[in-house]
Amino acid sequence: MTELQRDNKADVAQGPYLRGERIQLRRPSMKDTNYVFHWERDDEVWRYDIHRPYSRTMGEFLPTFERNYIRGNGRQFWFIIEDENRIPIGTITYFNVDNRLGQAELGLGLGDKTRWGQGYGPEAIRTLVRYIFTLPGIRRVYAETALANHPSRRAFEKAGFTEVGQIYDPRSTGEPWVLLEIWKSHTM
């Protein structure tokens, strides 16, 4: 169990609150359920991820949301992205933390389509990367995205990530994916 998850009641978001210039990242709470459920069910938001939606109904989604987003599973750490008016606009997460290799994977989902192309994604990425690099031993953060997902690739590039090359993602339909990375030495 991590510091982020300890004492986390199902309806209360626990810190840290990570701040960028315009955005804030905070732990999810039950009040975020409707936002996240609708974002995950939006075909346009997740057109590059064949594993969405996770749930067909809110009833199916609630236990998953509470278990994974609120209480945490000890392997994936979720944040809600809020804009400058504290309105939730998406989610960002880090996972696959490998202390032996000193790395973690990052994933972004900007669910509010009216905020696309306005720099919120790169700012959220930079904000979470700064936090991840404060974790003991983490030297590299990486991300994987569909080759065809140009908006995601641009957001990571604007946040300082470099494209390493194409990879095969077994979750995909066989379409190529891209591996991106940023090293702690390049951000400090």
From TrEMBL:
<protein>
    <recommendedName>
        <fullName>N-acetyltransferase domain-containing protein</fullName>
    </recommendedName>
</protein>
<dbReference type="InterPro" id="IPR000182">
    <property type="entry name" value="GNAT_dom"/>
</dbReference>
<dbReference type="InterPro" id="IPR016181">
    <property type="entry name" value="Acyl_CoA_acyltransferase"/>
</dbReference>
<feature type="domain" description="N-acetyltransferase">
    <location>
        <begin position="23"/>
        <end position="188"/>
    </location>
</feature>
<dbReference type="InterPro" id="IPR051908">
    <property type="entry name" value="Ribosomal_N-acetyltransferase"/>
</dbReference>
<dbReference type="Pfam" id="PF13302">
    <property type="entry name" value="Acetyltransf_3"/>
</dbReference>
